[in-house]
């Protein structure tokens, strides 16, 4: 199945879920409806290749003096596309998250930190949006991850959206920053999936650790 078709079939599920509960994204709403199985047919859950974990860093728990990441928590690990949709439909999307929040979706057992041994030699591609404008691209990024859309899928660690006062930033973290072929392929494919026309840049974590505002090593 091609990228577009795959996204479409996953997006259709989102539409179906919205139709089931049109008030879904209101504060305090929890969708408890589940798809009713057809009589006599056991529906097999769709198993992604990897388990994925959502992580959240709560801005109200952040203090200027706290160590970076000390308030970051793994909130849910999911193993099926159905579980993904139930979670996705019951959590706030970036436009509704509080300023300062960081929301991550990483492969199970990879922590969204430079210090994680799998991330340590990696880097990230990022795209910046005006505040309130990243919801669609965040969803497309999640669908591309769990739908294993990337040709260099093994290179992917996960994705994060940082919600800030004036902007939202989505970053795609990868494992081996020096593997230029893989990074360029991932960057190009990600832009294509998002329908993003502007140039995006890739920063090595090693550089980000040394200085804030590190320079892009690759651009596509
Ligand atoms: P950032 O969030 O990657 O940069 O890191 P940005 O987007 O320029 O800043 P923001 O204010 O919009 O969040 C910001 C700072 O957070 C870094 O300079 C580090 O001090 C700290 N930091 C970020 N990350 C991803 C890590 C990490 O993985 N490990 C540690 N120890 N510190 C980090």
From TrEMBL:
Could you tell me which residues belong to the region Disordered? 1-42
Q: Which GO cellular component term is one of those annotated?
A: eukaryotic translation initiation factor 4F complex
| Keyword field | Disulfide bond, Initiation factor, Protein biosynthesis, RNA-binding, Translation regulation
* This protein's record includes keyword RNA-binding: yes
Q: Name one GO biological process term.
A: translational initiation
Which molecular-function annotations from GO does this UniProt entry contain? RNA 7-methylguanosine cap binding; translation initiation factor activity
The yes or no answer to whether the keyword Ribonucleoprotein is present is no
Biased composition of type Basic and acidic residues is found at 1-27
Of which family is this protein a member? Belongs to the eukaryotic initiation factor 4E family.
Name by which UniProt lists this protein: Eukaryotic translation initiation factor 4E-1
* Source organism: Gossypium hirsutum (Upland cotton)
Which gene produces this protein? LOC107951014
